[in-house]
Design goal:
single chain, about 220 residues, alpha/beta, 7 helices, about 30% helix, about 25% strand, globular
Length: about 220
């Protein structure tokens, strides 16, 4: 059906395909729509850090709804997740189209690094779900999934934010960290680590104990 909008510049919407939210983003939009804005802002930060990178991989993509923001700034994006339900949902075509072709595959980063290696990798809201017994393996395999001098970005909720987290989040968060401890942990695996703080949609270099979210931008 072709619709005629009052303002003709919107007539391009007649050619826009129907796009659905993924499993996780739909649940977030239904239950806590404000949180979706925070999540998308994290992807925007990653996108700006990785502008122009040739081959990039996301570790722990969930439904990959926000991944397209990074895809907009890099040449090729591959997304991976441990849960086949998320990967199957991506492959179902709900979010796939010719304009944004997405490579998605199931992979457990704890089982080993990806091969061939990438120019950059990022992983948002994953480390806090990994036990301290496995956290070194997680970073080792992330590091070994990128080329020498490659960039890795890791984002996690701060330990200080947890008293304000939802019950669902608290149940899954077993490994949140304070800013200085997060930086020291990453420095054991990378030559350079730059720590950023985040509150709501704003990324900054302010006082880490007051941050809701933390980013470590690492160089192999």
């Amino acid at each position: 059906m072709s619709r005629r909008f009052v303002e003709p510049q919107y007539n391009f919407l007649n050619k826009t395909p129907e796009i659905k939210l993924g499993l996780m983003s739909a649940g977030t939009w239904y239950k806590d729509p404000r949180r979706l804005a925070f999540v998308l802002s994290r992807y925007k930060f990653v996108a700006k850090m990785l502008v122009g990178k040739e081959r990039v991989v996301e570790i722990g993509c969930g439904d990959a709804f926000g991944s397209r923001i990074v895809q907009q700034e890099v040449n090729q994006l591959t997304v991976t997740d441990i849960d086949h339900l998320f990967v199957d949902d991506i492959h179902s075509g709900k979010q796939q189209n010719d304009l944004w072709p997405l490579i998605a595959m199931q992979h457990d980063i704890l089982s080993g690094p990806l091969n061939p290696v990438f120019d950059a990798a990022f992983s948002l809201d994953v480390l806090e779900h990994i036990s301290t017994e496995n956290e070194c393996l997680y970073l080792e395999n992330m590091r070994d999934s990128v080329k020498e001098r490659g960039v890795i970005i890791i984002g996690i909720p701060s330990l200080e934010s947890q008293p304000y987290a939802s019950q669902e989040s608290i149940e899954g968060h077993v490994n949140c960290k304070r800013g200085p401890d997060f930086k020291l942990f990453c420095e054991d695996f990378f030559s350079q680590v730059f720590l950023f703080s985040m509150n709501d949609e704003v990324v900054h270099t302010g006082y880490a104990p007051m941050a809701q979210y933390l980013f470590a931008v690492c160089v192999k």
